[in-house]
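Collaborator request, handled under Task 6.
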Amino acid sequence: MKGVGFKMKKVTIQNIAAELNLSRNTVAKALNGGTVSYETRMTVVKKAKTMGYSKLSKQLIEEMDKATLEKKGGTILVLFDRADSLFWNKILTGISDECSDRGFRMQLHIVDGRDSNGAETKKLIEEDVCGIIFLCVFPVPFVEGLSKAKVPMVFLDAPTNAGEFMRYGDVITQEGWYSVYEMVNTVIKQGKTEFAFIGYENGSKSVHDRFDGFMNAMKVNNLPVDKRLIFTEKVQDDYYNYSVIENLVNGLPNMPEVFVCTNDDIAKYVAISLSKVDEKLAEEVVLIGFDNTIEETFFKKGIITANVRKEALGRKLVRSLMDQIDYPDKDFELTAIATYPMYN
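Structure tokens returned to the collaborator:
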């Protein structure tokens, strides 16, 4: 049986004219160098590009892109709720650079935890705020409150049910399932069988995916999971607190061969805690982290991690926001950015 081919309908000047409620003659002049106002020409060119008009000249596209950049400007509000770290600093660098390249300003705001419904933060959304980037997984009521400002939103990560945020904007996550699965599976092939896992599973989609990757690696290799060594319930600061990790390590029923941590900060806290118990033990235990933020000077060498192209991720957040600004009718998206296991 012969395959059936489908040919996309060719976009014509008449199609563009109908979309813009302009005459065919006006659209033809705008696309072919005729006498029309600058604003009309740019409106027609933008619509032609969006619709996929094949005869649009490179010169007109460049003119439109330049005009769009010059016309833009304004503020991108970046919301955050955590202390500085190498991971966040590099993401912020990417956001700032991309905003600057596109003629926007970045405004960073540390959210007060008492602003549960976004009422106080919403006061920051003045006329020149063109969009919001959420760098942390804020409570849904907070996001819902800010959504009333009717500005485009992009989220770095989301609740385990990403749909709770996708009602309001694009969600960008870091791929974690496969990277953690691969790192754990590699260590198992090296003969390790006793694992601990540390990270608040239901704190975000990214952590949930990493835990799921860990559990699948254990299952595929027919290894039992000691529930006494699985720390996935909510605790103070979701394990991003050294004293919490130190108490956890000191209270272990038995010492695992491997700690799987949902990020490098937690892995470093584990290493420091182990060194206080026994320096030799700290050297022998295998640590798996995530984000590739371990300093070269850190005493514990060979921590396995997953590299995240952090500045590129920051730029991606801005580009996603720009797409919403340029094409307000676009569907919201859930995007997973690749991560890369590293075996030091």
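The cover message to the collaborator said: "The chain has three domains: 13-71, 75-175+311-338, 177-289. DSSP finds 14 helices and twelve strands in the chain. Please let us know whether this matches your experimental observations."
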